[in-house]
Amino acid sequence: MRTTIEMILFRLIFVLLSGLAIAGTTYVAYMGHGGESRDLDRSIRAVSAGRGLNGSIK
Q1: Dist CA 47 CA 58 (whole Å)
Q2: Quick one: which of 25, 27, 36, 52 could link to 47 by a disulfide (CB 3.0–4.6 Å)?
Q3: Which candidate, 8, 43, 3, places its Cα nearest to that of 57?
Q4: How far is residue 2's CA from residue 8's CA, in Å, rounded to a whole number?
Q5: pLDDT of residue 3
């Protein structure tokens, strides 16, 4: 009987942590982590010759 309760508890914790991991990655993806900067009007980026040839500055 004790093994069944422990297994149910383990599964419940596992599902809860999995849900939190999925929710966290969804939040980070929705908020645009690593995406386009929102301070483009205030930031001045220097472009080296190698990176500026294709026309992308940032």
Answers
A1: 8
A2: 52
A3: 43
A4: 10
A5: 84
